Amino acid sequence: QAEVGQSIAWTVRIAGDGALEGFALPAYEAPGAAIYDKDPHLVARVDQGRYASAATFRRALVPTEPGRFAPPPMKLVTFSPSRAAYVTHELDMPAIEVRPGREGTGEITSFAPDATPEELLDEVDMAPRPILRSGRAQAWRLTGWLPAALGLTALPALLLWLWELSAVGRAWWDRRQVPIEVERTASEVVARAPREPKARATAFETALRLAIAERPDDQGLQDLYDDFLRARFGDESIDRDLEVRIERAVRTHGEDA
Q: CA-to-CA distance for 140 and 143, rounded, in angstroms?
């Protein structure tokens, strides 16, 4: 029982193996009463690698009208690691008969036994937690990490250099596959073209370039060179018919058999 204007102490105690720093009770409204929150009291400790915390939250309910005051249950949502899900807890409140009285009497009535958060810690089934140590903060030493960090910074440039080096090596190998002297004619290049497809295509392209250099006004030779490029770098392939056309074209300049 209580009177209108009488403060009713409402105490909520929470204990467990989770951190309560920054935790606050959810907003609560109860028709027929005013609600006032007080500062919570939190404690925590680590014992042999196990962590536990407890907190006491205090609220004051002040009935504003006579009659039967039935506060609705308060819901608390916590995360359960064992269930890997959020769990909703309901705190049921007892009904209170409110008698007419003088507002602002300042009297406080509590319906819960008193217990400190420190006493609640003894009831916690403490789960393993990281061991917390006090002392001076220390920054990581960078001596061992500095060479690795510099190496990672230089890695893109190194990869680019290796790629360029491999490109130069491939070009050198291609030249080795098609040893063409400056004094060779287009027909000689075709006659000595290797069988390896890539090197053979390079030889035929070289022959066409030599022929075009000798006959820059030969439009048919230029069209044949365009067909060759489409076949080499397009979706087609350099077949034997195209090779025969090139062989005939490069031999028409003073070498008609």
A: 9
